């Protein structure tokens, strides 16, 4: 199992490369894995991703791709060439199949986003789905597993239910992480770092509780300590 520090992925949801580099500097050796999503990717973040990879950090490129198969496949090939570790796609069968072809035998791992952690049953109904959140997460996880996707993004609320279904060959990456007492914001399915690890999450994605904290390093260190304590409880 990885070092607890390497199981924390910090979401660099920041407006510019300068702002991201300032946070990265403050986090120093405390964080080894970063996520770059829409906000930063469209503001120079993909070049920053390559720089981080060059300096030994791991990068999760969070573009949640969803398009016709050919476009997804070619887009994934481009991301694979950056040396990124994870890339998200939406958990639609055509999209997942194309992404698996696109990543080929590169080191890139494809993560399928099951149901966004800002959704609850009412949000799914509003989007036209006749499924509860756990039902749709389970259905998409089964499809992702059959297609050969490398991992799932889900809430830690679903991690315990998914683990026996997917085994240990797929990673579970859980956003919607909130240390006790932290502001929930727009997230609806949240768990503490401890509960996420105990539920079977492999990696925790944390944005605002770290990047918007007065002392991001102290916030990250506290989460890593919580991951470590929970991992020790498991053995
Ligand atoms: O794919 C993701 O990373 C993701 C999936 C999901 O279901 N929920 C979710 O919050 N995320 C991302 O995880 C991060 C969570 O950020 P915070 O809510 O600030 O901790 C954001 O960058 C989201 O884009």
From TrEMBL:
EC supergroup of this enzyme: lyase
Coiled-coil residue spans: none
Catalytic activity of the protein: orotidine 5'-phosphate + H(+) = UMP + CO2
UniProtKB keywords: Decarboxylase, Lyase, Pyrimidine biosynthesis
Documented EC number(s): 4.1.1.23
Binding site for substrate: 13, 35, 62-71, 117, 178, 187, 207-208
Annotated metabolic or biological route of this protein: Pyrimidine metabolism; UMP biosynthesis via de novo pathway; UMP from orotate: step 2/2
All residue ranges annotated as the Orotidine 5'-phosphate decarboxylase domain in the record: 7-223
Active site: residue positions: 64
GO molecular function terms noted in the UniProt entry: orotidine-5'-phosphate decarboxylase activity
Family per similarity comment: Belongs to the OMP decarboxylase family. Type 1 subfamily.
Functional description taken from the UniProt entry: Catalyzes the decarboxylation of orotidine 5'-monophosphate (OMP) to uridine 5'-monophosphate (UMP).
Oligomeric form and interacting partners: Homodimer.
Name listed for the protein in its UniProt record: Orotidine 5'-phosphate decarboxylase
Highest classification ranks of the organism: Bacteria, Pseudomonadati, Pseudomonadota, Alphaproteobacteria, Hyphomicrobiales
Gene field: pyrF
């Amino acid at each position: 199992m990885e070092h607890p520090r390497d199981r924390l992925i910090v979401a660099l949801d920041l407006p510019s490369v300068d702002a991201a580099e300032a946070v990265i500097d403050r986090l120093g050796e405390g964080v080894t894995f970063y996520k770059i999503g829409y906000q930063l990717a469209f503001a120079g973040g993909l070049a920053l991703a390559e720089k981080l990879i060059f300096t030994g950090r791991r990068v999760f490129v969070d573009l949640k791709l969803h398009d016709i198969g050919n476009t997804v496949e070619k887009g994934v090939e481009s991301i694979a060439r950056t040396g990124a570790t994870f890339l998200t796609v939406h958990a639609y069968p055509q999209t997942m199949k194309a992404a698996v072809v696109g990543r080929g035998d590169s080191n890139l791992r494809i993560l399928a986003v099951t149901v966004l952690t800002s959704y609850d049953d009412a949000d799914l109904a509003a989007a036209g789905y006749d499924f509860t959140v756990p039902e749709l997460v389970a259905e998409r996880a089964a499809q992702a597993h059959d297609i050969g996707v490398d991992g799932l993004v889900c809430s830690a609320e679903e991690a315990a239910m998914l683990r026996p279904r997917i085994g240990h060959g797929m990673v579970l990456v859980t956003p919607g992480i909130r240390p006790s007492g932290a502001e929930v914001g727009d997230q609806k399915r949240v768990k503490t770092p401890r509960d996420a690890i105990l539920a079977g999450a492999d990696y925790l994605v944390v944005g605002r509780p770290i990047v918007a904290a007065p002392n991001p390093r102290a916030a990250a260190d506290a989460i890593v300590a919580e991951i470590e304590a929970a991992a020790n409880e498991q053995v």
